[in-house]
Amino acid sequence: MTVTPKTIEIEEGKELPEVELRFDGLQFEEVESTFASIVYAVYVDGETEWNPNFGPLAVGEYDVQPLHYAGRYADSNYMVTLANGKQKVKPSVANKRVTFTVVDANGGATLAEAGVAIADATLKTDAAGKVSIVLPPKGYSYDVAKAEYDDYEGKLTVLDEDQELTVALKKLEVTVTYKTDGNGVIAMEAAVQRLPMGGDGEQVVAVPNAGYQFVSWEDGAVNSTR
To answer: DSSP alpha helices (H): ranges in 58-131?
Structure first.
């Protein structure tokens, strides 16, 4: 007996339907429930199993392969062969493609591996800082996040054309405070600085009071200027 997934064609942006199976070679008109459960999955590149976090499948043809079984096996007096199938995705007439480009707000460098959450999907930007999704016309809220950056929340409305959006993320900021033990001052009026995470601060100088000398900073640095 050979089990084959039925080929299903959907429009881009639509949810994937459940895989339907065809049983060829039955001798006594058995029903599907006669046999052990058979699970198939859709693969996006021949190796990676699709899951909802990937977002809707793009236009193309995808392999539908069995899980947990390799080769023929026996079940209910049959030798069972599990064949691969196809999932086809055709261009959508109504749905439109929304492309996000995520950049650093300071300088505009593109940001890879930023997460874009929209329409129950969480997508990751590629090396060029881009990711796209096909959506039916209506309003959406979205969130963009990346480590060491402030999250960004936005709204968009899909109408009758594809859209391209650029989202600029700001680096998280930290407060750096320089102070003495009371026997000196911090010169150059930069004792408290607000800096982007990983950024460089303004130069400061520790000036000891008369009768005292500078020894070191708390982190062990021995130069009074930093």
So the answer is: none
Q: Percentages helix, strand, coil for the chain, rounded to the nearest 5?
A: 5, 45, 50
Q: Any idea what the Cα angle at residue 24 is, between residues 23 and 25, rounded to 5°?
A: 125
Structure-token pair, residue 14: 């639509």
pLDDT in tens, 112-153: 999 999 998 999 999 999 999 989 889 999 999 999 899 999
Across the chain, what does the average pLDDT equal? 89
> Which pTM does this prediction carry?
0.53
What separation in angstroms does the CA of 97 have from each of 13, 158, 174, 181? 9, 9, 37, 60
Residues 6+ apart with CB under 8 A from 87: 7, 8, 10, 16, 42, 57, 61, 62, 63, 64
